[in-house]
Please model this.
Amino acid sequence: MTRTFVASIQPQMQIDEVYRIVDRQLRANRQGNLYLLLQLQDNTGTISAMRWNADEKMAEKFNKGNYVRINAASQVHNGVLQLIVNQLQLVDESQISKEDFESASRVDVDELWKQVGEMLHELKDDGLRAIAMLFYEDPSIADLLRTAPAGIKAHHAYPGGLLEHIVSLMSLARGVANHYLDLNEDMLVVGAFLHDIGKLEELAFDGELSYTDSGQLLGHLIQGVQMIDRRILELKTRGIHVDSETVLQLQHIIVSHHGYLEHGSPKVPMTLEAIVFHYLDEMDAKLSSARAMVLADRTKDRWTPYNPTLGRKILKPTS
Model:
């Protein structure tokens, strides 16, 4: 029997299929009645599903990572496709086809990784190149960056998304430095390469994507600085000295790249390179989110629904 993949679901369909739970919350509506809000996934995407008239006993039965067979109807609400679940039951992992749930990368990660190496080898600053190459030549870093999304639900939220974001920013950094000639191009390029490197320790990639304890307690900005500190110590054991001012300014790009204290940065950008990088990162992330909004909206309306994170609607391209 042909599988009904998430990407093939259209409005007003009756669905009888198995999906994986990637998030589960028990919520109350305005009348105080409880319902179960699920995020269901296969290898083509994720869709929200609601089971009305739920209770704590039902919520405890279904957990993140479980496979469930649902009987549901699809509908569009505020421009977003969702499922209204009538019935759901647990399915043993032995009864499913793993390939239906293994997310494929949307990007050519090998080509992207090759581009990273080419840009790093063109660096003129010996210290910055030495730091960057320690990360690039680490097999564990390389493996994680080939599969890591940029976040759980935010921009570039798919396997290889973080690497795609990094390469985009490295290329943008070179272009901007070519325009504003007083910028330190090498600092911008390495800042782009390492700005989110802490996410490799912030997020857990074994099984369902989630936050590690250290990720919850510290966050990837601080973890990124710690990772650089460890590499500096490694370089010292090899007799390689990196100017302390260079390290400081690189770490400043990492801790300030969210731009604002209220957005999680412990410091606002205070160097030319940090200011520029914040806006490049913001642009690339916001454009990724806006594109995802357009792709997720399956209505024929010209505008997407209002997105509270972006604080706007998006006019859909006509072609």
